[in-house]
Write a structure and sequence with these properties.
GO molecular function, one term (chain B): oxidoreductase activity
Structural class of chain B: alpha/beta
Structural class of chain A: alpha/beta
CATH class of the largest domain in chain B: Alpha Beta
CATH superfamily of the largest domain in chain B: Thiamin diphosphate (ThDP)-binding fold, Pyr/PP domains
Protein name (chain B): Alpha-ketoacid dehydrogenase subunit beta
Oligomer: heterodimer
Radius of gyration of chain A: 21 Å
Largest interface: A-B, 45 and 47 residues
Largest sheet of chain B: 7 strands, mixed
Helix content of chain A: 40-55%
CATH architecture of the largest domain in chain B: 3-Layer(aba) Sandwich
Number of domains of chain B: 2
Order of helices and strands of chain A: HHEHHHEHEEEHHEHEHHHHH
Number of strands of chain A: 7
Strand content of chain A: 5-15%
Distance between the termini of chain A: 75 Å
Mean pLDDT of chain A: 95
Low-confidence stretches of chain B: none
Low-confidence stretches of chain A: none
Keywords (chain B): Oxidoreductase, Thiamine pyrophosphate
InterPro entries (chain B): THDP-binding (IPR029061), Transketo_C/PFOR_II (IPR009014), Transketolase-like_Pyr-bd (IPR005475), Transketolase_C (IPR033248)
Order of helices and strands of chain B: EHEHEHEHHEHEHEEEEHEEHEHEHH
Cofactor (chain B): thiamine diphosphate
CATH topology of the largest domain in chain B: Rossmann fold
Chain lengths: ~375, ~325
């Protein structure tokens, strides 16, 4: 039965072979899949550029997504206009698919602003504190329900929230409280856990003695494990979970089983805590490679198509590098202005004192 | 129109009026629905407004505050109840890392119109974790506003002002004063929430207090008056931001200031007030700003809390010290 799977849902093998699943089917077209492949290639390029920019000192930090493109692209394509996404700090491909300007992501990691993002109504700011956003998403979903935006006959009126968190976050109190609240209020929220096997240097074995998706049963809602490197399966499973939520059937936990090919952030060194053989094994499960193989065999993409996307990726890389120079540092005035919605006399006084100090220095 | 009410009833009436006035206002917390809250502040509200407006929450403070963040993002104005002061700490991270920072980190795009109601302070003979004064933690956190009512009229009006604010407000309710009665004026426009109030005029020294200590200071001033000392009492009402205009206008006149709070002495609000008054009124004051506070220890067992809490005698003793300069 759906949601009580004991086996990981997979629709495309690492060799690029399409396989059937009793419960889930990818219903999109080959053109859709070519679009997903393009998204994944561009996301990987963006990620590589940002990693390089950090190495050049242009970003203070970067959180590489390499290896997790299918989990992110597949799930992002399951979102509809009214759905709202609560990311952690690695969801660059989700942001790309939803149309968040990449300069927004770069600005946060460069430190030009604190997350002054466009499309906040759709895609919330990155969350650095582990798991806090699971509660925000659940509360938001409670609000969706209070608004009557679930279970309507006109499905266009329905909405749901999706929250991204990692395997490490599943140990956090906030995340577990979010599961409790989501279950208590039957909130329309999907917990999308990218189990990339590592919480910085802590392996999943330290976080959980059972597969993570099995925990959902203890909270009273379905949990399902999907091959996170299989964009078809991720899309199909997320479609199902989001539709359940929108329909009023409550929360779902999705464990996207994947692997973080890079470091946790540009500050750590995976060679200190994991075996290179693991990385090699996972390289064989690469999400981009398998979809490319499948679509090539299908005749949906060819060398020319791939070359065109590669050109696009190069151009994206150039744009990303150019963007850095255009990012503007937030001003102290803007910060003073935005601490409160209703300014305080005390803070205004500090602002004036600082302005006077600056004026004195210039004089 | 005036009516004599307890602070508990006044808060209840204020919450009811806020729920009536704005359909986006909702209450959430442990036991606030059917039970009406352990102090009965929300009594009858769920019956009147339904389970969607007055929400019984699972026993998880971070969950209550964290979901309220999401509700704010969806356009609601949640008012959450933390059952007791000492229980706010499981939700502390959400308050200081999320609620307080959301407005600035989004460049002002995301407002957090949330009220966090906390019955606080001692003097009721409670067991541990039920009598604390955590205001300095919150007052030290930019992005939050912190207020405390000291009488029923303020309770009625300030809770509505807090709910109407587009900023997150930590609303501290002096639980030992819940049953204290006072006039509530339902018609006259109240003072702004972030304005202190001179609740007794005097010329010899200013007692600065908020929440539960306002009454203690008024009682101390009454005793002092019998002895010929004329004390002014300022109810700060707002802890963050402090209304320096009112505070300084009072101290400028009396030229002596004593801050009184239940929270531990070191790095408490008294320290900030003393520093600010020293910066601004150094040449005006006749004596240093003195403090009467709790001691730097965890809140003591109830049988000895009267030793810990600022008393009339300790306040008057400190007044004598100030006057002796």
């Amino acid at each position: 039965m759906r949601g009580q799977s004991v086996e990981m849902v997979q629709l495309l093998t690492p060799d690029g072979e399409r396989v059937a699943n009793d419960d889930f089917e990818f219903t999109g077209s080959a053109d859709d899949l070519a679009g997903y492949l393009r998204d994944m290639i561009l996301a990987r390029r963006f990620d590589a550029e940002a990693t390089a920019l950090q190495r050049h000192g242009e970003l203070g930090l970067w959180t590489p997504l390499i290896g997790q493109e299918a989990a992110q692209v597949g799930s992002a394509h399951a979102l509809r206009a009214a759905d709202v996404c609560f990311p952690s700090y690695r969801e660059h491909a989700v942001a790309m698919v939803l149309g968040v300007p990449l300069s927004n992501l770069l600005g946060l990691f460069r430190g030009t602003d604190g997350g002054h993002w466009e499309l906040l109504e759709k895609f919330k700011n990155y969350q650095i504190v582990i798991g806090c956003q699971a509660l925000h998403a659940t509360g938001y979903a409670m609000g969706i329900q209070l608004d009557g935006a679930v279970g309507n006959d006109d499905s266009g009126q329905n909405a749901a929230a999706i929250v991204y968190h990692g395997d490490g976050a599943a140990s956090q109190g906030d995340v577990n409280e979010a599961y409790v609240f989501a279950a208590s209020y039957n909130a329309p929220v999907v917990f999308f856990c990218q189990n990339n096997q590592w919480a910085i240097s802590e392996p999943i074995a330290l976080q959980s003695r059972i597969p993570l998706f099995q925990r959902a049963q203890g909270f009273g809602f379905p949990g399902i494990q999907v091959d996170g490197n299989d964009v078809l399966a991720v899309k199909a499973v997320t479609d199902w979970a989001m539709e359940r939520a929108r329909h009023g059937d409550g929360p779902t936990f999705i464990e996207a089983y994947t692997y973080r090919m890079g470091a946790h952030t540009t500050s750590d060194d995976p060679t200190k805590y994991r075996e290179s053989s693991d990385e090699e094994a996972w390289r064989g499960r690469d999400p981009i490679l398998r979809l490319t193989t499948y679509l090539r065999n299908l005749g949906a993409v060819d060398d020319a198509w791939l070359a065109a996307v590669e050109d696009e990726a190069k151009s994206l890389g150039a744009d990303v590098r150019a963007t850095i120079a255009e990012l503007k540092d937030v001003t102290m005035d803007e910060l003073f202005e935005t601490v409160y919605a209703e300014p305080t006399v005390a803070l205004e006084s500090q602002r004036r004192e600082y302005a006077a100090y600056l004026a004195g220095e210039d004089a | 129109m005036n009516e004599k009410l307890t602070m508990a009833k006044a808060l209840n009436r204020g919450l009811r009026r806020a729920l009536q006035a704005d359909p986006k206002v909702l209450l959430a917390g442990e036991d606030i629905g059917k039970l009406g809250g352990v102090f009965r502040i929300t009594e009858g509200l769920q019956a009147e407004f339904g389970e969607n407006r007055v929400v019984d929450s699972p026993l998880a403070e971070s969950g209550i505050i964290g979901t309220a963040v999401g509700l704010c993002m969806r356009g609601y104005r949640p008012v959450v109840e933390i059952q007791f002061d000492g229980f706010v700490f499981p939700g502390f991270a959400q308050i200081v890392s999320q609620v307080a920072k959301m407005h600035m980190r989004t460049g002002g795009r995301q407002k957090m119109p949330m009220v966090i109601r906390i019955p606080f302070g001692g003097g009721i003979g409670a067991v541990e974790h039920h009598s604390e004064s955590p205001e300095a933690y919150f007052a030290h956190t930019p992005g939050l506003k912190v207020v405390s009512c000291a009488n029923p009229n303020d309770a009625y009006w300030m809770i509505q002002q807090a709910i109407g604010s587009d900023d997150p407000v930590v609303f501290l309710e002096p639980k030992r004063r819940y049953q204290q009665k006072g006039e509530v004026n339902f018609t006259d426009r109240p003072a702004p929430m972030h304005q202190a109030s001179i609740v007794r005029h005097g010329k010899d020294a200013t007692l600065l207090a908020y929440g539960p200590m306002v009454k203690t200071c008024l009682d101390a001033a009454a005793v002092a008056a019998e002895e010929g000392t004329d004390l002014e009492v300022v109810d700060l009402r707002t802890i963050s931001p402090v209304d320096w205009v009112t505070v300084m206008s009072s101290v400028r006149r009396t030229r002596r200031a004593i801050v009184v709070h239940e929270a531990p002495l070191t790095l408490g609000l008294g320290a900030e007030i003393a520093a600010k008054l020293t910066e601004e009124l150094f040449y005006v004051m006749e004596s240093p700003v003195l403090r009467v506070a709790g001691f730097d220890m965890p809140y003591p067992p109830a049988r000895v809390e009267s030793e810990y809490l600022p008393s009339i005698d300790r306040i008057l003793d400190t007044v004598d010290t100030s006057l002796a300069y």
